[in-house]
Known about the structure:
two-stranded antiparallel ribbon, 4 strands
Amino acid sequence: MTKFRKCATTSNPSARLFGLPVRLYSPAMAKVCHVCKKGPAFGNSRSHSMVATRRRFDPNLQRVRIDDNGTPRRVYVCTRCLKAGKVAKAR
């Protein structure tokens, strides 16, 4: 699976000229909390026969509007920080 798609109608003329991949969307969501910087943890998934395959434990992140020095902006915050009230939501 490719992360980027080609688009003939782009504002970047050099990308259209050379057939370079054009970014139409963000390839991945931010996996880090804006407040506590909690990121993904890694471990093993164990089957019944105890065969270990690598897996990742992603934090429970929510995209919320916060008040950042009087300017509202959207950031990813983990639910633990939201519940503790460490973030002031924008109205």
